[in-house]
Amino acid sequence: MTMASAASVGSRNPLLRAGLPIAAFAVLAIGFALAGLAFGPVRLDLAQILAVFSGEADPTTQAILTQIRAPRVLLGVAVGAGLALSGVALQGILRNPLADPGLIGVTGGAALGAVLVIVLGAAVLSNLPEGLRPYLLPFAAFCGALAVTAFIFAFARQAGMTSVTTLILAGVAVNAISGAAIGALVYISDDQQLRDLTFWSMGGLGQANWTSGFIATLCILFAGAGLLQMARALDLFQLGERAAYHSGVDVERAKLKAAGWSALAVGAGTAVAGPIGFIGLVAPHLARLSVGPSHKLVAPAAALIGVALVLAADLAVRTAVPPAEPPIGLATSLIGGPFFLWLLLRYLRRSTPHA
Amino acid sequence: MLELQGVGLRRGAREILRGVDLTLRPGEVMAVCGPNGAGKSTILSLMAGDLKPTAGSVALDGRPLQSLDAAGLAVQRAVLEQSPQVSAPFLVEELVGLGASCAPIAVEDTAPLVRQAMQTAEVLHLAQARTDRLSGGEGARAHLARVLAQNAAGRMGGGGKYLLLDEPTASLDLSHQIAAMRCVRAAAASGCGVLTVLHDLNLAAAFADRIVLLSAGAIVADGTPAEVFRESVLSEVFGVAFHVVREPEGNLRIAPVYRH
Asked: How confident is the model at residue A354 (pLDDT cuts 50, 70, 90)?
């Protein structure tokens, strides 16, 4: 009887247990968003920010907030959530905590797509109607991300099984190839293109304006909604592909969906903010450590953590050595690199037999 | 009925199964026995829909298996793999809950169903334990509970008709082997057709209504335990001499004759 009651109490617990960390991450994300609005060359306080929203602020403050900082924060929210959710989906589908959109080449593919447009896109751009032009870069980045994702998934699939080791190694190779292709494109680009390229490839939210931020946010919103719906399938994937099928998951379709939505989220984010590493790796892990393995909790938690991390990194790079602004990737890699090493150690320890 | 008709499976030059006609009926426990590589798990995979036969057809209640999607199949049948695993540290209760999520049932029905499955598979006391910290046998029982939950949820959702178990007793101690086979009998008693691959012939003889003996990709005998487990048949299939005796309690006792 006591055992039975313990079990029934436990069954109500997970949501409650996860509620606190998720609330904490939400507070953190909102806090960094407010800080992102407040800090910069001109410091604004909460009263000034609120004044802008009610339309009572002076024109300068108004401009700083609505033209510079708000689009920047919006883009940060979109990019952080998109990268984190892609990481959740890829790690879930592959049953491997080391999968990351950057590591398996998705980000590299998106970068190649974007660089192609910057260097060779002039002809296409001039033929495009004015209204569609801003969409070409994200579209190319998405195509690059999707092409790489499709390629590595197909490549790593042998006899109906996707080998994770092959997939990660193929990702490394694809990264090298897209890196070389980007290098070649840089080599043939003219001065103006070189400038655009350099700014873009350093990565950062600083290039955000309302149009680019809005497009990226829209894409990521779609992708994020798609990925959030996959929570149960991702849970069942943890049983292995065959058992997931036995439990009612259309395995191939689920993989296609996860890969497609991830490519959209990563492609859109990378197109506007440049390649930002490690968020897709770190955020899902921190989420799992705090809310457990169930994906319907991991996904929202990871999205909030991703938002907080990207906004924090952005805040760090633009307040560290003003007025210079180091690339945001510097900050994320500084956190992500050591974290990845720690993860590898943990992973190795767990896979060696212990007493 | 889950039916294999004239089923063959060929992989390259290798013929894994040939000419298999087999019907799993509601309410029966069918044990599939035979030496390694005879095609036991292959038969189970064909019935589960993982593999498509290269000859013949598979039908579930008269409909070709291919016409059902993964979600529809999951309501009709539940499958326990040979070495089930889970690569995330779910709690046992969450793992079993995953099984219950395979059929569209009301939220308020889930918790009791999950608890019942855990009780039947004797893991209720482990409900709050993490699956990555269980012993081999405890893990096997947790997965059995998950599959029983899927079966029960399927029954609520108008299916739950078949259970396909690949060596459900493999990593269990003696008393849990018996308990697992009792779960199997209970499922059959409630109208479910159970196919289970078993290596332990005595367990098969004690708990199955029907034995299907496989050798080299073909069925060599199909009938009640007493009809199939004859010394001559067994020694031919396994290449080992056997003594088969009927014990006073009525059970068959099948013992290989060891020669050093």
From this structure: very low
CATH number (domain holding residue A49): 1.10.3470.10
ipTM of this complex: 0.94
Give the number of domains in chain A: 1
Q: Is the dihedral of CA A117, A218, A265, A209 positive or negative?
A: positive
Residues A277, A310: contact at Cβ < 8 Å? no
> Going by C-beta distance under 8 Å and a sequence separation of 6 or more, which residues neighbour residue B107?
none
Substitution target from A246, A252, A256, A297 for chain B, most B beta carbons within 10 A: A246
Report H helices in chain A.
2-38, 46-53, 59-63, 70-94, 106-120, 122-127, 133-155, 164-188, 191-202, 210-228, 231-237, 241-246, 251-273, 279-291, 295-320, 328-351
pLDDT in tens, A117-167: 888 887 777 777 777 777 788 788 888 988 998 888 888 877 666 677 788
- What is the rounded CA–CA span in Å between residue A260 and residue A153? 11
- Quote the CA–CA distance of B10 and A115 in Å, as a whole number: 48
Instruction: Give the pLDDT confidence of A199-215 residue by residue, as tens digits.
Output: 777 778 877 778 878 88
| Bridge partners of residue B63, in order along the sequence | B60
Task: Select the residue from B98, B110, B125, B135 to test the A interface by mutation, using most A Cβ atoms within 10 A.
Answer: B98
Instruction: Report DSSP state, residue B239.
Output: S
Closest chain A CA to residue B116: A4
pTM flag (> 0.90) = no
**What is the Cα–Cα distance from A146 to A191, expressed in whole angstroms?**
30
* Cβ atoms of B1 and B61 closer than 8 Å: yes
Q: Residue A318: which domain range?
A: 3-351
